Amino acid sequence: MQAMSEGRTEPSAEVRRRCEMLRAEIERHSRLYYEKAAPEITDIEFDALMRELVSIEAQYPELITPDSPTQRVGGSPLQGFETVEHEVPMLSIDNTYNEGELRAFDERVRRGLGGETPLYVVELKIDGVAISLRYENGILVRGATRGDGTRGDNVTENVRTIRSLPLKLQGDYPPSIEVRGEVYMRRDELERLNRLREEEGEPPLANPRNATAGTLKLLDPRQVARRRLDLLAYDVAPLPGTTILSHWETLEALRRYGLPVSPHAQRCATIEEVLDACARWETKRVELAYETDGMVVKVDSAEHRRRLGATAKSPRWVIAYKFPAQIARTRLLDITVQVGKSGILTPVAEMEPVPLAGTIVKRASLYNFEDLARKDLRVGDMVELQKAGEIIPQVIRYVPEDRHEQAHPFMAPETCPVCRGKVHKDPDGAFLRCLNLACPAQIKGRIEYYASRAAMDIEGLGPALINQLVDNGWVRDPSDLYGLEPVALAKLERMGEKSAANLAAAVEASKSRPLSRLIAGLGIRHVGEHIAEVLASHFDSMDRLMAASLEELQEVEEIGPVVAASIRDFFDTEENRALIAKLRERGVNMREERVVPEGPRPFEGKTFVVTGTLRGGSRDEMHERIKRLGGKPTSSISAKTDYLIVGENAGSKLEKARKLNVAILTEDEFEALAGGGS
Predict the structure, then answer these.
(1) Can you list the positions of beta strands (E) in 97-196?
(2) 3-state DSSP call for residue 454?
(3) If you average pLDDT over every residue of the chain, what do you get?
(4) Which residues participate in catalysis according to the annotation?
């Protein structure tokens, strides 16, 4: 056990019991919420349990375990992903597309079994990212993507953020087990993310699978946690010493271990039952919370699987049946152009309303003008559309035989459709951008983002009110919000004296928001909520940030050349510097307040990197401790690093530290240097 710092006491038996009880209760309620959709307590009650556990672990870090629910949200950003080799290859699955091909698969299986008729298990094919999860003594120790089937990326820190995934198994689990599953994103979560992207003037994510893959590749686990991924387990890798069960028994075992397993798996005695299941779910899939693009048909018996074997590419005992895409036809009535807060022009298809995959569709983004030209869509065309990921309407093509002779190609605008200002093609993509910062559409988008919860959090300032303020000429940039009078606001549509007073109070309150919120609210390209916090923490004040050179910006942890250039370009623009000056005059906070902790600061000016699994707590908690003692935690080893703190399974950072002659500390050695500081 970690030595107690001066003045610290050992946790009592009662505290230890309470800690264990809280962990068990939190995990139980998480399973009820995420797996069974049958919560027994409110979100507030759940949060209270979590807060109590966090409080106990903060007071007694030695009680923190890797499987604690408090360890789900990842720590510092990663510097890239380690490539790991799969002990058992993750083979691909062959596809079929119709009833005849499924029957042919059944015939091959029965021939391979000498005429025996197998049992099949039919499961939904989740359209996500395949994952391998290694548990040792019931504790999750590694999560890896499929990659090329032989090697994948170690994404352990990212998968630990998945709430439905147990960090510790339940029941009579084996000492070592490798679970195979699918990480996915719910449809409602994708819709939430796309709304945020739309607010920021970014194109939507095309489908849940792409969103899932992109999320797992994020280098900041905290950002991954915010995207709310889910997981379903569907198999176990046949590791040496693993007892091979039938597939149906495997699914039941996974459930007993506390892993989320699809409730829709079905055991089938004949190929006819398999075909019936596929036909049923082809229709019912729209009712699911996630995207599925087919069914997976597996031979149930472990002995039958062994006899059937596998090719170099895929097992002979499993096949995927892919659903045909749901396609609708409708008339393209018009192509309009929207302008986002960053000036990006997006073509939009306006269509005759048509039912598709459970909803009525009448509008669809055409993404950019290059894609529009490639598809050669014209007003008046009969078009075919589908839902990408069964969520986002997507125009596939026009119907050639239905095109009118008078239909003309759509010409990309040479000026902004809102302000008639110049447009410019981005050098790094296919997007057109309005260059006029005074464009009303951009102003509205920027004001809406400035007032959002992620930025200055001005309650009551929504799109409808922003439209009135901009259209009336009262607001041209965020600084104008601070000159609005309640008397004038009360005269606006759907506003009264009380609403106007509340809004004025909310605007006034926003002046005292932390600097990080203001930086986020400025809408600097590539600078979101997290990067804004990094910048505010590093530079302390708006003046220091504005004066920072390109080189100084790139020295900041997590700031690369692209982000640094975007920040520098923003503050080099005269209009933006003028906006900062006006916000300052209005009394908006321009500094990041630092609270210097009381007590000794033995690590003043020293830089630390933490690696491996710590027995005394999480990396985040170690980082906070380093800060309290005057040090600076970073995520990557360099010649400027003073100390590397190592836990178990330290990995490549330990080797790099040795090469750079960086001082290496165990947890005990760190405690000794800290000298009892808190």
Answers:
(1) 120-126, 129-136, 139-145, 151-153, 176-184
(2) coil
(3) 86
(4) 125
CATH number at residue 288: 3.30.470.30
Alpha carbon 564 to chain centroid, angstroms: 23
- The residue behind tokens 């600078």 is 527
**Tokens representing 57?**
């672990």
Residue 346 to residue 432: CA distance in whole angstroms: 8
pLDDT digits (tens, 9 = 90+) for 69-112: 776 644 444 456 788 888 888 888 888 888 999 999 999 999 99
pTM metric for this prediction: 0.50
Q: Give strand pairing partners of 648.
A: 613
- Give the residue among 179, 188, 183 at the shortest CA–CA distance from 214: 183
CATH code where residue 540 lies:
1.10.150.20
Indicate whether 590 belongs to any domain.
no
Average the pLDDT over 442-461 and give the result. Answer: 91
At 360 the pLDDT is 83
Partner residues linked to 318 by β-bridges? 298
Inform me whether the pLDDT recorded for 258 exceeds 70.
Answer: yes
Asked if residues 58 and 625 have their Cβ atoms less than 8 Å apart, the reply is no
Neighbouring C-alpha atoms within 13 Å toward the C-beta of 21: 8
d(CA 299, CA 121): 6
Residue 594 lies in a domain: no
Euclidean distance between CA atoms 52 and 56, whole angstroms: 6
Report which residue type is found at 206: A
Q: Which two tokens stand for residue 536?
A: 């505010």
Q: Report which DSSP code applies to 511.
A: T
Cα–Cα distances (Å) from 352 to 248, 329, 331, 384, 393, in that order, read 47, 9, 6, 12, 13
